[in-house]
Amino acid sequence: MTLALEIVLVITSILMVIFVLLHRGKGGGLSSLFGGGVQANLSGSTQVEKNLDRVTILLGLIWIACIIALNLINTYSGNPGPVPA
């Protein structure tokens, strides 16, 4: 169970970095590299940006849930963890 949560955590971390970099910021961001820059400036927020926001929020929620679950498993598994020096 712990290994599966750790794998999901790594995958969601990498995807979060990618999706956050794809967001259009004040300067255009990396999303303008894929052709969204001109249309997004003319029409405000496009459907692609809205979907990108939704996916990023969903990934963030999965990421937070994995962190909480791993912490709970580590706390209640009976393993004391590293001993302080």
From TrEMBL:
<keyword id="KW-0812">Transmembrane</keyword>
<dbReference type="GO" id="GO:0009306">
    <property type="term" value="P:protein secretion"/>
</dbReference>
<keyword id="KW-1003">Cell membrane</keyword>
<protein>
    <recommendedName>
        <fullName>Protein-export membrane protein SecG</fullName>
    </recommendedName>
</protein>
<keyword id="KW-0472">Membrane</keyword>
<feature type="transmembrane region" description="Helical">
    <location>
        <begin position="55"/>
        <end position="73"/>
    </location>
</feature>
<dbReference type="GO" id="GO:0015450">
    <property type="term" value="F:protein-transporting ATPase activity"/>
</dbReference>
<dbReference type="GO" id="GO:0005886">
    <property type="term" value="C:plasma membrane"/>
</dbReference>
<keyword id="KW-1133">Transmembrane helix</keyword>
<dbReference type="Pfam" id="PF03840">
    <property type="entry name" value="SecG"/>
</dbReference>
<keyword id="KW-0653">Protein transport</keyword>
<keyword id="KW-0813">Transport</keyword>
<comment type="function">
    <text>Involved in protein export. Participates in an early event of protein translocation.</text>
</comment>
<dbReference type="GO" id="GO:0065002">
    <property type="term" value="P:intracellular protein transmembrane transport"/>
</dbReference>
<feature type="transmembrane region" description="Helical">
    <location>
        <begin position="6"/>
        <end position="22"/>
    </location>
</feature>
<dbReference type="InterPro" id="IPR004692">
    <property type="entry name" value="SecG"/>
</dbReference>
<comment type="similarity">
    <text>Belongs to the SecG family.</text>
</comment>
<dbReference type="GO" id="GO:0043952">
    <property type="term" value="P:protein transport by the Sec complex"/>
</dbReference>
<keyword id="KW-0811">Translocation</keyword>
